[in-house]
Design goal:
The chain is mainly α. It has a single domain, classed as Hypothetical protein af1432. Helices cover 61% and strands 2% of the residues. It has helices spanning 14-21, 40-60, 67-84, 89-118, 122-131, 138-159, 168-180, 186-192, 196-206, 224-238, 246-258, 263-266, 271-276, 280-296, 305-312, 346-366, 372-386, 395-399, 404-421; strands at 319-322, 325-328. β1 (319-322) and β2 (325-328) form a beta hairpin. The protein is globular.
Length: 429
């Protein structure tokens, strides 16, 4: 992984990471018949895909967007959801109308210390966002529209199972009325009319049906869709102190969000299988690219294809665009931290992907599930970072999520690796 290059980088408290991951356990529509588990993490992930679509359409018609504000606004709308859990929407809207300041104050009290550990100015920006001091900016409207469109997509799954249920038509009408408030947004119009953009939204939503670690029982179960958002949130937070330019913030978040999008067409082929069959990894990459070009890109405007492929192709490579050409970099230096270079921290995204996988395995093992696949997966991830304990995410962060069954072994091996790196002979035993 190379030498440590992130001195002064951001640290996220374990409690905040666990709080965000906890969205995978919040069940939505749990007072209705549901064809599958519908979790808050999946819904928020779908919202993130939709907001990318809406934002790009607005840019195409001349809007100037603050991508840093959009990504951070997404985070600031996500966090209250995990604090307040799944309150029925009509009651939540009434609660905020009557007691909004008190609710916001409660959310702030819960998150204040955790956010301050991430970055000193984050709690104040969070408070400003909750209080709406910036007014009704376009970015806020895009986030709200994406929220209601993601809700509508979920509701359609529920509605077809129970169209006879008392009150279901009222819920349907309420959601449609909420979306109508944003019908001036061109992306909302296209999705509402079920044009090609709706196909993209629908495909992204289907990633919630694909389970991670499908070969073993887990608790909580996470989907490819929810995992993708968790990686994106981690990438944003771990990069926060680095003062990234707005396009770098955008690229890191949405590249992380889309890094598993090709699995729509292949499902999750685990790395040990890819590596154990000669030529399989290259074949999978080639097929994923072909299927993306044939089935996904035609759903998006032609002008977007270069950017989407910039995200999907080699997502874990540090890169910039220079003279319109992609260039991989070992380090993205201060000179290239500029919107015109389209910088993207693929190495950081890869670390966040691994951290997410470790947390998925560790949390399942904590529940008492004894699975060799989970233990082997956790051990493999920890081994990757043991010899080089500092990087975009320090090894100490990974060790916070080391399963108890591996803790003693991991600590011993870490001590040995550090002694060797300092040229010290290990003690005889």
């Amino acid at each position: 992984m190379g030498e440590f290059r992130w001195k002064g980088g951001c640290m996220i408290p374990k409690s905040l990471i666990e709080r965000m991951f906890g969205a995978a356990t919040i069940q939505r529509w749990n007072d209705h018949v549901r064809p599958v588990e519908l979790t808050e993490l999946d819904k928020q992930a779908h919202k993130a895909f939709i907001v990318y679509l809406l934002a790009r359409f607005e840019e195409d018609r001349g809007a100037s967007l603050d991508w840093s504000f959009l990504v951070e606004g997404f985070l600031f709308e996500f966090l209250p959801r995990v604090v307040l859990t799944d309150i029925k929407a009509p009651f939540y809207h009434r609660l905020m109308a009557v007691n909004g300041p008190k609710v916001n104050e409660h959310v702030m009290r819960v998150l204040q210390e955790e956010l301050a550990e991430v970055e000193g100015g984050l709690p104040d920006r969070f408070r400003r966002y909750l209080e709406g001091r910036e007014g009704e900016k376009l970015e806020r409207r895009l986030l709200k529209a994406a929220h209601y469109l993601a809700t509508q997509w979920e509701f359609r799954l529920v509605y077809h199972l129970e169209p006879f249920l008392y009150g279901i038509e009222r819920t349907k009408a309420e959601i449609e009325n909420q979306i109508e408030d944003y019908i001036d947004l061109i992306g909302v119009q296209k999705i509402h009319l079920k044009q090609k953009a709706y196909g993209f939204v629908d495909l992204c939503g289907q990633l919630r049906f694909q389970q991670r670690w499908a070969q073993t029982p887990r608790m909580p179960r996470t989907s490819v869709l929810g995992h993708s958002l968790f990686v994106a949130l981690l990438a944003h937070l771990f990069g926060l102190k680095r003062r990234f330019c707005p396009i770098r913030v955008r690229n890191n978040f949405f590249c992380a969000l889309m890094h598993d999008l090709p699995e729509l067409f292949t499902r999750d082929i685990i790395s040990p299988i890819k590596r154990s069959i000669e030529g399989l990894e290259t074949f999978v990459e080639q097929e994923e690219r072909r299927l993306v070009e044939e089935r996904l890109l035609p759903l998006l405007p032609d002008a977007w294809h270069v950017q989407v492929m910039y995200y999907l192709d080699r997502p874990f490579e540090n890169r910039i665009l220079e003279g319109g050409q992609r260039r991989g970099l070992r380090v993205i230096d201060a000179q290239h931290n500029d919107d015109r270079y389209e910088p993207t921290d693929g190495e950081l995204i890869k670390h966040c992907d691994n951290l997410s996988a470790l947390i998925e395995a560790s949390k399942s093992l904590e529940t008492g599930i004894q699975s060799p696949a989970l233990l082997d997966g956790a051990a493999t991830i920890l081994a990757q970072y043991r010899a080089a304990p500092e990087g975009p995410i320090p090894y100490s962060v990974f060790m916070q999520f080391c399963p108890a069954a591996l803790a003693g072994e991991a600590n011993a091996k870490t001590s040995l690796a550090r002694k060797r790196s300092r040229g010290q002979a290990p003690s005889a035993r």
